[in-house]
Every structure is written in structure tokens, then in C-alpha cells.
Amino acid sequence: MAQGPGEAYERMLAVAVGALHEREPERLWPLLANALPELCGGELLVYKLDDWSERAGTVGMSPGIADRLDALGDEDLGLLRSGYPFADHYATGPDRTPRTARAAAGREWSTSPTAQLLDATMDMDHVLAVPLPQVTTPITGCMVYRSGKDFTDDHVRTAQLLQPLIAAVEQQRQLLMQWRQLAAPAVVGEPAAAGGLTPRETTVLLLLTDALTATAIGRRLGISDRTVHKHVENIYRKLGTRDRLGTVLRAQQLGLVPTPALSRGRSEQHPARDLSRRGRGR
Known about the structure:
Blueprint: H1 5-19, H2 28-39, E1 44-48, E2 59-61, H3 66-70, H4 74-81, H5 86-91, E3 99-100, H6 101-105, H7 108-111, H8 113-122, E4 126-131, E5 141-146, H9 153-183, H10 190-195, H11 199-209, H12 214-221, H13 225-239, H14 244-254, H15 266-269, H16 271-278
Antiparallel strand pairs: 1-2, 1-5, 3-4, 4-5
Helix pairs in contact: 1-2, 1-9, 2-9, 9-11, 11-13, 12-13
């Protein structure tokens, strides 16, 4: 069913809000993969969160496509991993706007080995690349596939409109991965149980550890200062603290955030000094 960019944005916003309440980082992109293809006029999606290369990197995909990709040999899989024609296009400059394969490769697209492989294995004819905005190296993001007619200009505009929401979910995934790595030495489930923090509060806590102001945290997460203050108040209440410094120290004791190593820089060895330098306000 066709839908305009505004309706697609509202639907993706609901998906993004749901993703921000998810604790498991591995579930975030599958949530996007279920919703994004239809919103952009496609049928299937493949996403890649590290560099596009023929030999390395893991990929994720929409339900129903995994069996077909698992059946590919190394040579064919390497052809898909290489990201033709988008890898070269986005690597040559700062442009990160969504782009179709035909727009990037011209007439050569339909006769390219990649297009022929997609037709033979996935019964797909066209690809729309949706890179994450503002990424430099590696170029990361996803590709949406469809059969029959090419993606329309409206589909491309919709994809561009959705880019910030996709980027917000990816940033949340990275922060949750960081939190998991930091909490790994503790007993499984202990950090979350000790603090009782929501995934969003955990994200704010990690940014508090970097001594960011409420304004900077809000800008990073795309939320208002007031919302940041509300999250901080909840963190204080759950950890039983009253200020930023006490919160960071308590979070370190619980294993929720890293304890600075003695071999690191001076400001990292003295979080109190660094926090006082940037301000103690919530």
C-alpha cells in the first residue's frame, strides 16, 4: 500500500521510540529491517554496520532472505559484500543522501554482475542505498531491494527523511553495546538489577560519565534539556545519589560504567576534577 513521506515518518518514529526501550542491542536493527523496506517502497533489506568489503564484515537482513543468502558461495557473497555501486560512490565524498543503484551506476547497473546475482538469487531488480548520515569511514547503513519498477523519487525522499531516525537507533545500539562490554566482568544481570535503569537512562548515564552538559546530551540524543534532566533525576533516585560526581562514582562501583585506568590521562584518573571543571549542574 502506497504511503506518503509524512505517514512513513510517523510509522518509523513509532519503531524508533520502541527501539529506544529495547535492552538487547542485537534486536534493534531487526526491528528496523521489519519496517523499513515497506516504508521506502521495497520488499527486502540487508544492513551492514561495518565496512563494505568483499572479505569481511557481518550482515543482517529482513526475515525470509537469510536462507537464500546462506546458500551463496564465497565468491557470490563477496560480490554482495562489496556494495556495488554504492561503496565507491559514497567513499569519494561527503554525500550521504539515499541513492538508487541505477542513479549511481547508470545503464551499467542492469548488466552488472551484482544486478544479475540479485535477480538470480533474490528475484530483485533494484536497490536503494540508505547510508547512515554523517558517517565517514567506514560507510555503514542498509540497502533496500525491490522487484519490477525502480524506486520512485518519493521513495528516495522518504528514505532521506527517515535517515535521522535510523541513525538514532544505531547510536542507541552502539551505546548499549558499549554498556554491555563495560558490564561484562560483573555477574550477568547484576548491573541492571543493581541500578534498575532503563536502556535510555543507561545511555544518559554513559554520557554523564563523559562530563557532557544536559544541553550536549540532549543534542547527542535528539531530546530536550528537560527530558535529559528528567532522566538524570531518575538515575539519581535509582542509584541513591545527589549529584553528578556521586552518580559517576556509584555507577563505577556497580560496574555500570568503566573505572578509569591508572595508565590513562590525568583527567581520566581524576573524574572529580574533570567534572568540576565542566560544571556540576544537572
